[in-house]
């Protein structure tokens, strides 16, 4: 549990108990907690974030798991589904840009075809057009990130690395690469799986156009926007952090925002300021004299698997006296038991984009 929530006073304990009784309409605390655990209907205007903090303050580590699950599920319910939104679309390469990259490649091919590309020619094309290697990778159905990992291209591609890449691509498109796993085939573009013409298929598609059926087949394999969504997944936390910062600014609360969530402060400086030696701290509020008052960490999870992995990591954040809240976004959190553990670990200070006002109320109370 967050040390800030340990050792609450008798008055605070009484306030927390009153919050539970008022929310549930019960006369006795045990009855109120049982009411929550048994899943009875609650008023539409229930302040679930306050109820969670009250429950954790009153019960501590021995909190009724049924009651905790009920309240945490409501608190962590996020309406942000990343499958419905796209970030950073202005940075996406256009069809014209990929066409220019292909032209840059084939202009350096011996006979103007893909099969005659050389490592030197690809390197020269990449120096002219930074999309050249990525376009070549996509033509054979391999992501540029995977290609870099396979051939050790951490920075700029070298001619030696490109020679290895071209050799692999040539064997891939001509059907010489065998899968090391039974009942599987090497990953490649779907058109290369159904046509034995190899590079000639790619040349033909480049010159004669792609049928709409082929375009849909490619989308079905890769998933619409899948690579771009994976690349920009962290921007969801950036957006929610912006919403929190906007509310803090409106109320005159000073803060420091980490570059990891779209701010200008180095992560290491934020760790030093907060005293929390963990790179996930995204925001720290401060008094007028620079004393830290509150820390906030943002975490997004579209599915339960991501929530489980992220939740395990959040639970490892070292405990310090500074109040520390977690803002959870995405559909993956509300049904995970890891979220219940987070509620206990962070003293009930769990929030989503739906209750940013409650978070800022809490921050303002300890900062003023």
Give an overview of the whole structure.
The chain has 368 residues and is α/β, with parallel strands linked by helices. It has helices at 10-24, 29-37, 48-59, 65-75, 95-106, 119-128, 132-139, 144-151, 159-173, 190-194, 199-208, 212-222, 226-231, 235-250, 267-274, 304-315, 337-345, 356-367; strands at residues 254-257, 281-286, 292-300, 324-329, 350-351. The protein has a five-stranded mixed β-sheet with strand order 1-2-3-4-5, sandwiched between helices. It is elongated.
Compressed to H and E, one letter per element, the order equals HHHHHHHHHHHHHHEHEEHEHEH
The Rg value, from CA coordinates, equals: 27 Å
Give the strand line-up of the largest sheet. Answer: 1-2-3-4-5
Oligomer description: single chain
* Spans where pLDDT lies below 50 across 5 or more residues: 1-8
Q: What is the 3D shape?
A: elongated
Helix content: 40-55%
CA-to-CA gap between the ends? 24 Å
What percent strand?
A: 5-15%
Count of runs of 4 or more consecutive helical residues: 18
Described by strand count, sense and barrel closure, the largest sheet is:
5 strands, mixed
- Please state the structural category: alpha/beta
Mean of residue pLDDT values: 91
Quick overview of this protein structure:
This protein has 18 helices and five strands.
Please tag this protein with its features.
alpha/beta, five-stranded mixed beta sheet, 5 strands, 368 residues
Topology diagram in text:
Elements (H helix, E strand, L loop, with lengths): L9 H15 L4 H9 L10 H12 L5 H11 L19 H12 L12 H10 L3 H8 L4 H8 L7 H15 L16 H5 L4 H10 L3 H11 L3 H6 L3 H16 L3 E4 L9 H8 L6 E6 L5 E9 L3 H12 L8 E6 L7 H9 L4 E2 L4 H12 L1
Parallel strand pairs: 3-4, 4-5
Antiparallel strand pairs: 1-2, 2-3
Helix pairs in contact: 1-2, 1-3, 2-4, 3-4, 4-17, 5-7, 6-9, 14-18, 16-17
